[in-house]
Amino acid sequence: MDNIATEEEPCEQCGLCCRIFGPNITPTPSNVYVWIEQGRTDILRWFVAFMEKSPPVNCADLNPLDLGNIVSVEMRNPDTGDYVTVCPFLRRVAKERYLCGIHLVKPDMCCTYQPWIWGETYFNRCKGLCESGHKRRWPL
Ligand code: SF4
Ligand code: SF4
Questions:
Q1: Residue 92 in contact with residue 19, Cβ under 8 Å?
Q2: What is the rounded distance in angstroms from the CA atom of residue 98 to the CA atom of residue 1?
Q3: Which of the listed residues 86, 102, 123 is the one where a domain comes to its end?
Q4: Each residue's pLDDT tens digit in the chain (140 positions)?
């Protein structure tokens, strides 16, 4: 989901992709590193890093030197440890309009999510894609 709809980025900010796929987003180690550098424990606490040689650790407690040992990073409720059902960063700003609360530092996979581009994840319920008659275009 983008923050400004343009001809090149036809996202309608309906929030549907975030509501459906948001709980499964996985940041890259680079994303995690940026959050550590910026002191974004508000973001880090929602993720658990599964390590190659040690037990899982909440990303808010992660040592930057351990980033190379990460096998995967998954979203978890920081209070209960449970899977989450809704991305905690999604913000409803109008009846049918949603924005990303961490837009400037959101994970790479959110930045590159463009269902209207050939080769990207197809999502036939994407409102931006529907508006274009489900026509997809080649990457610029
Ligand atoms: S981090 Fe932002 S863009 Fe990514 S799923 Fe959550 S609300 Fe959507
Ligand atoms: S489903 Fe499509 S239009 Fe809706 S927020 Fe996601 S990318 Fe934007």
A1: no
A2: 9
A3: 86
A4: 655 556 567 899 999 999 999 999 999 999 999 999 999 999 999 999 999 989 999 999 999 999 999 999 999 999 999 999 999 999 999 999 999 999 999 999 999 898 888 877 889 899 988 888 888 887 76
Q: Which atom of ligand 1 is nearest to the CA of 88?
A: 6
- The domain of 106 spans 1-24+87-140
DSSP state of 122: P
8 A C-beta contact, residue 127 and residue 96: no
> How many domains, the chain?
2
Q: Which atom of ligand 2 is nearest to the CA of 127?
A: 3
Q: Is the CB of 70 under 6 A from ligand 1?
A: no
pTM confidence score: 0.90
44 lines ligand 1 (CB under 6 A): no
CB of 11 shorter than 6 A to ligand 2: yes
Q: 6 and 43 share a domain?
A: no
